[in-house]
Structure formats: structure tokens, C-alpha cells
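User: Hey, my collaborator sent me this sequence without any context and asked if I could get a structure. I don't really work with proteins. Can you help?
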Amino acid sequence: MREIVLINITGEDRPGLTAAITGALAQGGVNILDIGQAVIHDTLSFGILVEIPHTERGSSVLKEVLFTAYKLDQQVRFTPVSEADYQQWVSGQGKSRYIVTLLTRKVSAEQLQRVSAITAQYGLNIDHIDRLSGRMGLDMPADQGKGCIEFSVRGEPADVDALRAEFLSVAQELNVDIAFQRDSVFRRNRRLAVFDMDSTLIEAEVIDELAKAAGVGEQVSEITERAMRGELDFRASFKERLALLQGLSEGVLEEIGASLRLTEGAEVLFAELKRLGYKTAILSGGFTYFAKQLQAKLGIDYVFANELEIVDGKVTGRAVEPIVDAQRKADLLRQLAEQEGLRLEQTIAVGDGANDLPMLGLAGLGVAFRAKPLVKQSAKQAISTLGLDGILYLLGFRDRDGLE
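Assistant: No problem. I've predicted the 3D structure and written it out in C-alpha cell form, which is a compact way to encode the shape of the chain:
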């Protein structure tokens, strides 16, 4: 005969505790079936599932654990587990696993309750909950905080689309982001990240800034807005907007380039991606002139954007073919992945407009960043609450893993 017991130990964390408890178990020739440990604010929660042999050594092992825990000022609880219950638990290990990631400026109980309630509603069991973000001071300004909670869940939702729609609805209601992705080896083995530029890497649509300088700002902005919402074909709208810039002085480009601001979190994100060995690229319907500036600033490997035609120091109102539109972005993503010897599941694509949707759909991780409603609904994942460095959380990256 053998005995299966779940041992739970709680108390103030201290060095050597795990060694002491497992040492007591070792004296009884115990096998470890499962183990987990967490420390929250210096308080330990330690669980260990054991198989105790029916031997003279094994018969006294629980007394030894109890005595060891007492000496260490720990509370201990023993829960017998039947072999039938254990076998049922083992049979569940083949079930699909998913990662639910909550991104917010400040984590609240309501946010966790809503996320966990939806996972339960769709038949998913929560196996682990981890905080990926760093410790936050009590007086941190509301718009500067950064919170991330990761749930590892098990099961297979009956309707994944309905689950995603419900997460999106709650995210909009609570002003948070909720990502839902399958947990696989590719999630931890991505190696290529491609980005739109305007309103993604920088806080502006450059063509709108050029239009203001040319005195046609309102006309171009209206066309840009409709194109980003997906109401107009990008290629046609791009040519229409570009034609309105005819005659603009080349010197204006330098002035606008100097005024462009990077999006929150861009520098942190690219520094970490570079440290982790990622290749990075700009795939932009904007202009090469500005993309090259970002390449130099952020250390980006590849740039594909539109070349403004300039003659005699004046913008002609035309771009040099081929134009980087929605389809070309997707084609370039596929081309770069092949060039780097990667599967598409190992790629990340980030953008904000309707013309980014094909590449977002093609990438292993497609992220609609501060995007229009149509794009958020259509993309696999969306981030609107945090900066670009929030993407690191979707990779399972913890703040404490970052650069010093």
C-alpha cells in the first residue's frame, strides 16, 4: 500500500525552509508528485504532493514534517488524496493551456474578479497567477503606473471568439487590456518583431504633419482618419493625400523629423528585444526619411517604407514604387521570417491602422496598439492602456528580468 498526501505549509519565509522540509521527507523515502511555492510580502505558501511508501521509514514521515515545521514556526496541513482523484488530476495534463494577461495602470480587485469570472464561465481552470510587473509605490500617479497579472489557465473554451469578445468588452469598460493566447513553445521562442511607424512607434501621423506645413492639414487629416478606420483603400487614399503635398519644400522634412516624439515605452522595448536577440523591422506606409531616423535612434535592423519623390528641393506629390500598403506589409513579414529562418509563429507584428491587419493576422503575435475600434476587434491582441513596452508582458517578460 502507498499513501498520497498534499502537504501545505504557510508562514514567514526564511532561508533553508524548503531544504529542511524536503530533508524530512527524504528520510521516509518519499516520492514528489507535484510541488509549488510562492512568497507574497515575505509570507510563504508552500505546497507539495507526495507519495509515501508503506514502509517502516514512511510511517513516521508526516510526524517528522510536522516537527520540522514547528521548529521553523510554520503552520502545516495534511490532506489525504485518493488514488482515483490523483489519476483524474494526471489525466488533465494533456488539456490545452492558455495565457490570460491583464495589463493596467493599477491592479484592482474588480479587474481580477472580472477576468477570473470570465475564465470560469468558459470552463477554464486557473493553474497559476503571477505578477509580472514590478512593485508599485502607494503614491504612484495613476497615469504612470504599470501593472501586469498573468493567469495560466487549462481547458478548451467552447467558443473562443465569444470569450475574446467578452474580454474585449470588459477591457473597454474597465480601461484595461486583456490578452488571451495559447501557451506554446513559440510564445517563448519568438525572434522577429515588425512595427508600423506612424501612431505606433511615434506619436504622430507624419503625412498629417507635412500637410499642416503645406496648408492642407484638414483635408489630409480627414482622409487619414478614414483610411485608418478602414473606410478607404490605403493605396488610393495615400496617393490622394500625397498629391496634396506637391511643392512642399524639402527643408520642412528636417524640421518635422526633429519634432517627432517616440511613443511611451519604445526605447525600453527595443533595448530589451535587442538584448534578447530579436531582429526588428519597420514596415510602414509612412516615409523612409523618418523611418531611417528611428532606425538610427532605436537600433532597428530593417526598414521598409515609402520613398518620397523630391525634385529640385520640392516634393512632387508622388512616391517611388512599390508603395508599402497592407498587402506589402504582410508580404514583407513573410519574406523577413523566411530570410531569418523563422516560422511565422515566431514573429510579432504591431500596428494601429486597418492597413496593418493583414500582417497582424499573419504574425504569431499580432498586437493592435492604441488602435481604432475596428482594428482592436479584428486583431489577436490589443494594447491601449500601457506603452509599447507592455508587449514584453505578452511574452512572459517580468520587470525584474529587464536591463539594470
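In plain terms: The mean pLDDT is 92. You can pass these C-alpha cells on to your collaborator as they are.
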